[in-house]
Amino acid sequence: MHGSMGSIRCGLAAFAQFACILAVISTAHAEDARGGYIDLPAGKIWVIDTGGAGEPVVLLHPRTGHSAIWENQIPAFVAAGFRVIAPDKPGAGKSTVAPDAKQIPYTETIDALADHLGLTQFTLVGAAEGGYFALDYAAWKPGRIQKLVLASSGLGVQVDEEGRTFRQNAAIPGFSKLPPEVRELSPTYRGLNPAGVRRWLAIEEHGTAESAERALLRTPNTVEKLATLRMPILVIAGDVDLTTPSGAIRLWAKHLARHDFKLITEAGHAAMWEQPEAFNEAVLSFIKR
What we know:
The protein is α/β, with parallel strands linked by helices and about 290 residues long.
């Protein structure tokens, strides 16, 4: 993507041409963000931290990515006056796992990171698997969370009978064996933005290995846990998400005491990547309120 991005042809469609231009601008600014390692009990954690006096926003990436997946969000959030912090989960991106160390819940690593950076309160945004840990953290340390955004995520919630029935009825045979870009990116995006797909795949290559064990939660995510949350919450779903359909998200979201819901059109599981303008507008308007 980088230097050659401007020369990539996106096709005749205006949508695709605009997507390419947006990707060039966003990536150039995202790379200006300061990144570095922080030694924590879980390992050497790579963290992008834009710094500044703005209210902090912590971004937790999906399993099929790392902090670079937020390259279309970081410059927009910084331009809106926020300090953005985006860690790579241990074992993903540039973060390493401490050798011979006992695995600890990723939620505790997030808390140690917040302590290290002196964050007393912050907005927490979790996408896909990142939403698992965002929920786990918000339920554990609610006083630290100003606002919570849960995007394109099933949260790993132990659902009720209605949720289980939905999953069974909506299941796609052989879905897990499809290539990741087919599972997570919409047909529209794959058809109109091949350069964006290539960039997404380059990031996905350095995400959590499929063979790796899932990072630990402090406590299981349940509908009862959802019901305890009292901070303002924004729930985001893509309307063509095959991995976590919007219907499945609505079924766990109904257990929240209160929330806003945003359905992003023509977006698959990677809504923040495919439709960054719509995603950014939804998140920024929510956290500015």
